[in-house]
Amino acid sequence: MTVALKRWAEVREVEAADAPPRRRSPLGPVARAAETAGGRLNVSFEFFPPKSDEGEAVLWAAIRRLEPLSPSFVSVTYGAGGSTRERTHRTVGRILHETKLRPAAHLTCVDASREEVDQVAADYWAAGVRHVVALRGDPPTGMGGVYQPRADGYANATELTRAIRAIAPFEVSVGVYPEKHPESPSLQHDIDVLKQKIDAGATRAISQFFFDTDAFLRFVEAARAAGVTIPIVPGIMPVTNFKGLRRMSGQCGAALPGWMETLFDGLDDDPETRRLIAGSVAAEMCAKLAEEGFREFHFYTLNRADLVYAICRVLGLRDRVAAA
Ligand SMILES: Cc1cc2nc3c(=O)[nH]c(=O)nc-3n(C[C@H](O)[C@H](O)[C@H](O)COP(=O)(O)OP(=O)(O)OC[C@H]3O[C@@H](n4cnc5c(N)ncnc54)[C@H](O)[C@@H]3O)c2cc1C
After folding, report:
1. How far apart are CA 74 and CA 66, in angstroms?
2. Half-sphere exposure of residue 177: CA atoms within 13 angstroms, side-chain side
3. pTM here?
4. Active-site residue numbers?
5. What is the 183 CA–ligand 1 centroid distance (Å)?
6. End-to-end CA distance of the chain
7. Which residue among 193, 196, 206 has the greatest number of ligand 1 atoms within 8 angstroms of its CB, and so is best to mutate?
8. Looking at the domain assignment, is residue 187 inside a domain?
């Protein structure tokens, strides 16, 4: 050590001795996240393909607002039974050609032959898409709520993942359910299924949305204990339409905790207050997960940018690039 460096080390030692003892932060989780997070996070945004010109304008306003946050990817959903096939394709194509974003196309196997699904995946690869979110899909209403694989189709997301990877070296993300998939006998079964998907080529798991952050943390811990090493990314949905969510909560495997009922009670005709509550609930969840060490977040945007943009700011993200 040179004399100058030794002197510097001595000065630092004195400074450290003089520094007041570190106190436990009096701040809440959101303020702590703002103080500590900053720029080290990866986010992704999920959109659905619009049905009308008006919906298209809303979607693109959201994409343009979120684009400067430089997400790792943006994904576009695929309607039940491939009902949005053309619209998903068109939206993914526009993202690819008109923005600097990296699109991920959702693909499902419901009500389609293996050949049809393979063709969609091959078309995506040829168009320049490199990331697919591979899902089984939900049973269409005609199936009476029970999923029936087609004899000539893929039976589940594992088979779909394997097929997609055989077509081209896509990055493949898959779905997971921190509170158990509604058709699964147990969480352990879900974790076994996740391991099958990873063996088939999945490199990222994105969770169903949830409100019980501890349930998500327990799921990740159990998956890690079972040897899962790929990223398990929390799926965050700022919920503004609580009434609608209550209606569909059983189908998606996300429990609605009593405190959510209390928060939204009596607000059916007060969308502005619902939005404020939705933003603060999601921000608190994200801040807590950031404190637990999570550095990737997937946002179900429902094609609206404002709450997601605000939550990303809470997490320390700032505009990184000028919009294309
Ligand atoms: C991030 C995310 C994005 C989504 N995007 C879309 C979308 O764009 N379009 C859409 O229609 N739906 C979408 N969904 C919903 C999804 O299609 C449904 O939740 C569907 O019910 C399950 O899909 P999966 O890919 O998880 O299925 P799978 O992984 O195939 O699992 C479905 C059920 O079958 C069981 N299972 C799977 N493999 C086996 C096996 N080998 N043996 C025994 N049991 C097995 C599982 O335990 C589970 O209960 C999305 C879900 C998530 C989490």
Report:
1. 10
2. 22
3. 0.90
4. 46
5. 9
6. 50
7. 193
8. yes
